[in-house]
Specification:
There is one protein chain. With about 325 residues, the protein is of the alpha/beta class. It has a single domain, classed as Rossmann fold (3-Layer(aba) Sandwich). Helix content is about 35%, strand content about 15%. It is built from 12 helices and 8 strands. An 8-stranded mixed sheet has the order 1-2-4-3-5-6-7-8. A hairpin with a 5-residue loop joins β1 and β2. α3 crosses α5 and α9 packs across α10. The longest helix has 16 residues. The protein is globular. It starts with 16 loop residues before the first helix and ends with a helix.
Length: about 325
């Protein structure tokens, strides 16, 4: 990176992709964002579903600091450890922060009949358009984690120069959905798959979800993430099946048309997301030179717990990039 951030060095005892990944949930997160304050925001989409978000405001606002949207992964919500850590860091820098709960995630489950997926870029576009002018007066930035990063990249590619966002960053985004699914299905990733698959099916079946009897039956009969996407995610979003959903929704297809400064941060030892999707991508296909790929040898999946302190290195790198990308 051209910004003043040291290269990533993993710290003891979190060595290797698996331990880096696990550290994200094992390391304590602050129980409070004080002295900042938080309030609930309700954002009702055109089809009637209401996405809930948590708006965090710094104790001492800094004039001209843009709002930062934080978008969680699968499974995830406003209370995911990486969301809380990053919000605290941004608040310290004077930014207001909006921790989103995508359609049907976390507290949004009770107010949304639908379910988000990697194809949910239109939801993100609609939600950004619903933000109060008071919050967006100084501009808007966005940071997406895991599937949230993939949704963000897809949205940015679809919108091109039309997006109102000033800059963005993705962390550990599964830009190749099929490759990610089959990586999770590998024998060595049995526990990861069980965790992700169990979480998404529970969320899809939870109270508040609007399902037909046939959809519920098919979800309950699934035994793998691929089956879940094939019988539920794909048809629910208008795709012919899982492979069609993966092909049409993979963020890698939308990278060439992104037109705002965007950091794409990933680790090559991520046990969930195959590094080859990043290492093998032709970054020069984005002729506007809007993308800043930063690929580290280590870091795991949304890990990046480094030698420089408690804050994950990814938070420091994202903040340095956003600061650099903003003029003035």
């Amino acid at each position: 990176m051209r910004a003043a951030v040291k290269s990533f060095t993993q710290r003891f005892p979190w060595w290797g992709g698996d331990l880096q990944t696990l550290a994200t949930v094992l390391i304590d997160v602050p129980s409070s964002l004080a002295p900042g304050t938080s309030e609930r925001l309700h954002l009702t989409l055109g089809d009637g579903d209401t996405m809930l978000a948590m708006l965090d405001r710094p104790a001492i606002p800094h004039a001209g600091k843009p709002l930062v949207l934080l978008i969680h992964g699968v499974p995830g919500s406003e209370t995911s450890p990486y969301m809380l850590r990053m919000s605290g860091y941004l608040l310290d820098k004077g930014h207001p922060v909006l921790r989103l709960n995508m359609r049907g995630a976390g507290p949004s489950r009770a107010t949304c009949g639908g379910q988000y997926s990697a194809a949910s870029s239109r939801d993100l576009a609609e939600l950004i358009g619903l933000l109060p002018a008071e919050l967006t007066a100084a501009g808007v930035l966005a940071v997406g984690y895991s599937v949230g990063g993939a949704i963000l990249l897809k949205y940015l590619g679809e919108e091109g120069a039309r997006t109102p966002l000033r800059a963005a960053a993705s962390v550990s985004a599964p830009i190749d959905l099929r490759g990610t699914c089959f990586t999770l299905l590998r024998r060595r990733n049995f526990l990861y798959h069980r965790y992700v698959f169990g979480a998404v099916t529970r969320e899809a079946l939870a109270e508040g979800a609007v399902l037909t009897a046939d959809e519920r039956r098919k979800i309950e009969a699934c035994r793998t993430l691929y089956e879940f996407d094939d019988v539920f995610t794909a048809p629910r979003n208008g795709f012919a099946g899982a492979d069609d959903y993966y092909f049409q929704s993979s963020a890698v297809n939308f990278l060439p048309t992104i037109r705002i400064p965007t950091l794409v941060l990933a680790s090559l030892d991520d046990p969930w997301v195959p590094g080859g999707a990043y290492a093998g991508h032709h970054w020069g296909s984005n002729t506007s030179q809007s993308l800043r790929p930063v690929l580290t040898a280590h870091g795991g999946h949304v890990g990046f717990h480094g030698v420089d302190g408690y804050k994950p290195w990814s938070d420091l790198a994202v903040m340095a990039f956003l600061d650099e990308a903003l003029p003035g």
